[in-house]
Target: MoxR-like ATPase
Amino acid sequence: MSNPPVIAAETAQLMERILYEVKRVVVGQDRFLERVMVALLAQGHLLVEGVPGLAKTLTVRTLAGTLRGSYKRIQFTPDLVPADLVGTRIYNQKTGEFGTTLGPVFANLLLADEINRAPAKVQSALLEVMQERQVTIAGETHKVPAPFIVMATQNPIETEGTYPLPEAQVDRFMMKVLVDYPSDEEEFVIVERVIGPPLAATPVASTTQLAELQQQCRQVYVDPSLIQYAVKLVGATRRPDKHGLGDLAKYLSYGASPRASIALVEAARALAFMRGRGYVLPEDLGDLAADCLRHRMVLSYEALAEGLTADALIAKVMAKLPLPDKPLQHQST
Model:
């Protein structure tokens, strides 16, 4: 038996400073910001869905500024080609040779704005970068800088001229976060800040420090019972009848893949780390279940006809499979 790792005071202070700097610029959106930090610590990609004007771009740009990391933004459009994303070979007339020009994906934080507006070729080019963290141009492989995180946004209300993301690509995102409108009080503060003097985030950490945080995050203890629960939860979306949820089978064409189990445990570990714990609690899994599962479930036509959402089905699964009792918090095996 050994005690689970304890989060060092300087580590907690560093994360607090990062969040403080971002919140100096971004008003509200606490849940969204928490998910962004979870994705950063867990080295996962994030898909963000929300109507325009909810500070999605501002949050990612501000976070990049606090980390002294390179930040690139790509506005996805129907006429985009893969070379605009990853780079291409260009002929140099002076030297008479071809040189490689690397694209905007070579950054620590990549914001893919309105990703569902890009055609399939561009989406498949981004797929290799997200999965392999490398780009192949004219047979040569180029590694993207580390850490490398893709934050992609999509607009849920305007579907004209969009290309729905294929399941293979959606599955590469650790989480899909839904961003909602701010409250009246938050919107009042937003307007005050916009009409007042401009604010900019101060760099408080380096990408090297972020890499260290990511390594420390991987030391957070996860009890086997929690891993078992994550696997059972994901399994219930594939074969609901095996878990006493036979009435949901008609609403699900396909359930979540094994990546969902991995993402849920990894994200819960990052959330526990953010909350200053060296061990994961069941509540960490429960808080992130919908974010890790909603984009990996393919609903049937019957579910769509009845107006059911993936979140509603996840809630029914979690009601049937309640969170396990808290494992021993002071021991690890």
Notes: The domain at 220-320 is CATH 1.10.8.80 (Helicase, Ruva Protein; domain 3). Residues 8 and 24 are 25 Å apart (CA to CA).
